[in-house]
Amino acid sequence: MNFKTINQRFSYPGGNTYLCKFRDELKRLFEGETVLRAGADHLVVISLNLTVEDIVNRVKELNLVMGHFEGGLRNQIKAGIYIADGTPQKPIVMMDRASLACREVHGIFNREYAVFDEELNKKHEQQQYVLEHFEEAFEKGYFKVFYQPVVRALTGKVCGYEALARWIDPVRGIIPPFIFIEIFEKFHLIHRLDALIIEQACKDIRDDMDSGYAYEPVSVNLSRLDFELSDIKKIVDDAVAKYNIPKKYLNLEVTESAFSSQNTNLAETIKAFRADGYEVWLDDFGSGFSSFGNLQSYDFDLLKIDMSFLRTFDTNPKSKLIIASIVDMAKKLGIHTLAEGVETKEQYEYLKMIGCEIIQGYYFGKPMPVEEYQNNREKYCRYEVSEPSELKEYYDTIGTVNLLDNRPLIINRNTIVNFMPTALFELIDGKFQFIYTNKAFSDFMASIGARTHEQIINEFIDKFPEERAMLRQAMLDTEEQKIPIDCAMTIYSCKLIVAVKFLNRTGSRTSFVLTCRNLSKIKKPKYGHL
Ligand code: C2E
Ligand code: MG
Ligand code: MG
């Protein structure tokens, strides 16, 4: 990837040197195998003995070694692997298959290789069909919107739909978006498709609004290229005006990958959409490389957590923690959260417990054509199953409460503060020393009448021998039992709870974490007293 930039930076002789190095390293790593140049910056290895694992290890090493010759440019080497299955094949066919696998990972930063398999072959074959028939598909209107419900976790009621494109082919049946979106982006057709989906979605929202049943907002997917190839804002505005629907009813999903290329237009257009009253959602959060950068650079109303975290929900305990941290972070930033790809009751319960507001996935329903909903309005569109539109804003506010925070009463705060007085301290050869105290701890000190941390250490030794002995014992206990130990004590006539937890020891140096509360100094309540 990016060989062009090597040529630009080091000119052709420099590029040639790099290519020779590339060949030499390949020959070294695949010693005894045939190494050929297929043209330009493509090299081929024909190997008789290696397993996929052997090949992958060598590809990884190749990338490491070649990194030294790229002059700081990120010029990744990608590999496509084809394992011959024993049936006679022309070399050109085999090379083509390896090449196809290689293209699969080109431009994807975290993947170094792909192995050709039947699935890839099928995808390639379907994409070939798409290439040959897309004009016909646009002309004859083969595209259809499928709707997948999204559900408010707290109520279990449908509170929106995502519009997802399907190509309904008279010969092949349903062709899913992962086959054609890539091609449409490559051939700059995607804005035509998206305009079509937006128009259809608005039309369907209008029908819903006129039906007398519950109606919900719909979100549509926008490609990065929509912002470059078309006046996407105008397309959306026109459709919304044509069907006279409130802007809050058409949400715009922008995928993370949309932000990977420099596109100033995108930032401005997102701003303009939001200023006009549309919601802009960040799709597939966590799937790409720029997740946090995007959160920092752009403003979003909602963050859709990529379903890859839920795919490892049962097998990798980190997944749950990562999801919870994303929800916590989003709430601190004042952004709503939606989890994609929810397939089980356990996943739903977990997401509800951590305060993820909206849920989407096969557990609640697969994407379906609009007729399915319209023909079964009694089943899908009654107020008992769908959220009445006037409750959207109401529940959105409830959703902003951060249930993972120890101060849930404070909504949308932009600071990270731990209100629990917390200190880290060491005991070095029996001598006590604070190494960290937070603001709450200093406030706590002040509340019991100590002016400095040193004062309290000294006075503990002189004036409170009993409390000091208690704390010493607690430190011994926690080191031995590895659990926090609570102590209740009265100092300067304040009732305190002090908790210590052993952290680590090396020689005569030990470290602890300590939290404390002053029970005598609780803020005076507005009503009632204890
Ligand atoms: P997306 O926007 O992230 O949409 C969610 C995808 O996850 C959909 O796939 C949906 O069917 C699938 N999904 C939903 N729930 C579950 C679940 O519980 N388990 C699993 N395994 N999958 C689930 P779909 O419809 O195949 O769409 C794939 C992608 O294609 C979309 O990802 C979106 O990025 C893109 N796309 C779809 N329609 C359009 C469109 O009209 N325009 C553009 N630009 N992109 C579109
Ligand atoms: Mg989406
Ligand atoms: Mg998504």
Task: Compile the SSE list and pairings.
Blueprint lengths: L2 H27 L4 E6 L2 E5 L5 H15 L12 E3 L9 H15 L7 E3 L2 H23 L2 E10 L5 E12 L3 E3 L1 H10 L3 H22 L6 E5 L1 H6 L2 H11 L7 E6 L8 H12 L4 E6 L5 H7 L4 E4 L2 H4 L5 H16 L3 E4 L5 H10 L3 E3 L7 E2 H5 L2 H4 L11 H8 L22 E7 L2 E7 L1 H9 L5 H11 L1 H17 L3 E7 L2 E13 L2 E10 L12
Parallel strand pairs: 3-4, 6-8, 8-9, 9-10, 10-11, 11-12, 12-13
Antiparallel strand pairs: 1-2, 5-6, 5-13, 5-14, 6-7, 15-16, 15-19, 17-18, 18-19
Low-confidence parts, pLDDT < 50 over ≥5 residues?
none
Helix percentage: 40-55%
The whole-number mean of residue pLDDT values reads 91
- In CATH terms, what is the architecture of the largest domain? Alpha-Beta Barrel
Hetero groups? ligand C2E, magnesium ion
- The CATH first-level class of the largest domain comes to Alpha Beta
**Main β-sheet: number of strands, strand sense, barrel status?**
8 strands, mixed, barrel
Q: What is the count of structural domains?
A: 3
Question: How many individual β-strands?
Answer: 19
Radius of gyration: 31 Å
State the end-to-end distance.
70 Å
Beta strand %:
15-25%
State the CATH topology of the largest domain: TIM Barrel
Give the overall shape: globular
Structural class: alpha/beta
What name goes with the CATH superfamily of the largest domain? EAL domain
Strand order of the largest sheet: 5-6-8-9-10-11-12-13
If helices are DSSP runs of H or I spanning 4 or more residues, what is the number of helices?
A: 19
Summed up, what is this model?
The chain is of the alpha/beta class. 44% of the residues lie in helices and 22% in strands.
